[in-house]
Design a protein that fits this description.
The chain is mostly beta strands. It has helices at 4-9, 37-43, 143-148, 154-161, 312-315, and strands at residues 52-53, 58-59, 65-66, 70-73, 81-83, 88-90, 103-106, 118-123, 126-128, 131-134, 164-169, 172-175, 181-183, 188-193, 196-201, 206-208, 216-218, 221-222, 225-226, 232-235, 241-243, 246-250, 255-258, 276-278, 281-284, 291-293, 325-327, 330-332, 339-340, 347-349, 352-353. It has 5 helices and 31 strands.
């Protein structure tokens, strides 16, 4: 691999974002109090698999091992810092279920807009398992997400109800199959930086689900390989920044932008627009693209099972990946065909192919 080209693209690019959700302010939460010795001791119990709801900022010793599910929920958990200090969050004993993750950052149901956490930091952790951030539901097909999607203002409501301003810093995600990091519908302003994804995954390494927006994935190393899919899925997610990452094993695709039209009966409202993919290194080991804008465009059996309404994927099953920017990336092992684009509103320029 040539490193000269990589040096050309490791640049920080600013990008305007507008992710303020309806009914919410941008006030930064006051720092949470530190956990007591007793609370840390309870967190580290190994004789139970009952989830532990983290009510405070915790710093672990480097030799600690957390075997319980950790939950950070609601505004009461805002401004908490979970500093593992190199400790392991071991989810190997948890059930193999899509609804179980080693760490959950989630909102609490209330009347109207949900009670959500904000300004949460998770740092210096090693995950043997996965992490999920969610508001209305654990997936785009969840009942409350589906019900909300029948309303024209679904995107605003989902964003106002989901966690915001969550930071994952210097985290190692290690998996033997489970999706490492999932950002559910409506999640905004999550940053994943200076982290590593290792192992193998059945699906994708990071999933940005419908109606999410303004997230940043920057300065990370993806040593992980996917058995079937791309490494980052941008599914109806907008105004995200994916930059300065290294994708070392791109076997089934790098970053794909699309919209899951009608899966599970949920109308997908937002299109994958306004995303910036810049300064990344893709090492291609298969025949799939490094970046694919409009990777589905209605080519799925579930595109027509959502109810008929005059908006979103109910109106059209196309992806509408428009006004995205793909610049200054280095692709090793494939030619210019490795960045696929069929919409003239997208900017694809100054990429290097080796």
């Amino acid at each position: 691999m040539k490193v000269t080209a990589l040096a050309m693209v490791l640049v920080f690019v600013s990008f305007p974002l507008n992710v303020r959700a309806a009914g919410q302010t941008d006030t930064v939460s006051k720092a949470a109090q530190n956990c007591s010795v007793d609370q840390i001791r309870e967190l580290l119990r190994t004789d139970t698999l009952e989830p532990f709801i983290l009510p405070c900022s915790a710093t672990l010793s480097s030799d600690a091992r957390v075997t319980r599910q950790v939950i950070i929920e609601g505004s009461a958990a805002s401004a908490t810092t979970f500093n593992c200090n190199g400790a392991v969050l071991d989810g190997s004993g948890l059930p193999e279920s899509s609804e179980v993750a080693q760490l959950l950052v989630r909102s609490k149901p209330t009347t109207g807009i949900w009670d959500r956490p904000s300004d949460v930091t998770i740092q210096n952790c090693r995950f043997l398992g996965s992490a999920k951030v969610y508001g209305l539901g654990l997936s785009g097909n969840a009942k409350r997400v589906r019900e909300s999607s029948l309303n024209a203002d679904h995107t605003n409501f989902a964003q106002a109800s989901a966690p915001t301003r969550i930071l994952f810093s210097n985290v190692i995600f290690e998996t033997t199959g489970r999706l490492p990091l999932y950002l559910a519908p409506g999640v905004t302003a999550v940053t994943v930086r200076d982290s590593s994804f290792i192992g193998r995954v059945r699906t994708v390494a990071i999933y940005l689900d419908a109606e999410s927006a303004g997230n940043r994935i920057e300065g990370n190393v993806f040593e992980i390989s996917s058995e079937k899919r791309e490494l980052i899925a941008v599914d109806g997610s907008a105004n995200n920044i994916i930059q300065r990452n290294t994708f070392s094993h791109v076997k089934n695709g790098g970053v794909f932008l699309y919209r899951n039209c009608g899966e599970g009966g949920t109308i997908r409202h937002q299109t994958p627009h306004g995303n910036l993919i810049s300064g990344n290194l893709f090492v291609i080991e298969g025949g799939k693209p490094a970046v694919w804008l409009n990777s589905r465009n209605g080519n799925s059996n579930f595109c027509f099972i959502d109810p008929k309404h005059p908006f979103g994927s109910s109106l059209s099953s196309l992806d509408y990946a428009k006004n995205n920017t793909v610049v200054k990336n280095v692709v090793v092992g494939a030619g210019s065909f490795s960045i696929k684009n069929n919409d003239p509103s997208n900017v694809v320029a100054n990429n290097v192919f080796e």
